[in-house]
Amino acid sequence: RKRNNRRGWNLHKASKMLKATLEWRLEYKPHLIKWEEVQSESSSGKLWVYHVQDKAGRPIVMMRPRNQNTKETEKQIRHLIYILEVASRMADKNGAGKFTWLLDFNGYTMHNAPPLKVSLHCNSILANHYPERLGLACCYHAPMLFSMTWKAVQPFIDPVTKEKIIFVDKGAHEREQMVTRFDIDQVEQCMGGNLPGCAYDHGKYGSRMHEYDKEVA
Fold first, then answer.
1. How many domains does the chain have?
2. 49/173 Cα distance (integer angstroms)
3. pLDDT in tens, 41-70
4. Given CB 3.0 to 4.6 Å as the disulfide criterion, which of 5, 65, 90, 98 pairs with 135?
5. How far is CA 179 from CA 50, 129, 139, 168, 191, in A?
């Protein structure tokens, strides 16, 4: 009986989440956000969909807080949602169903750290409207400063999601951790990989996103 009650409660919860997400999509219309609207947010390469997949075949969303270049919360949120839509569509297209979030914390400071309100809003969007989309979140060289944000946000993160979050710290095993999950030849040298220079090219990335928009249309 307890098992049936729990199953019934889970189905009820899932039904409510689905209803809320459908209502949100009808109102917010995330699929209608175009690259032209958010490209200014992406110009610095702070948040973008990587050009290759991880070793599990999942699209990679790359985030670099040090490249934060704007202050308008609503535009930042719309850019985030556009990226989530792109990654989700790619994940469905290749059959993975989920994406990987790779966070490069090199250069992370109080100056470029997002406000707690924005972090909580982002977590809410991920948890409520893109549930089970996250396959892995890899935090590369997260500093002590980030631990304050992590402590504040952690209680609001679903336990299942929390298990998917890993931290790659500086040390003897960091390259091994990256090699296990990513094609090291496609990871930049600043993150322990073999790819020289910066992988993000705004012009080339913009062309990719224009093609994505055409497919959605």
1. 1
2. 26
3. 999 999 999 999 999 999 999 999 999 988
4. 98
5. 16, 31, 14, 11, 11
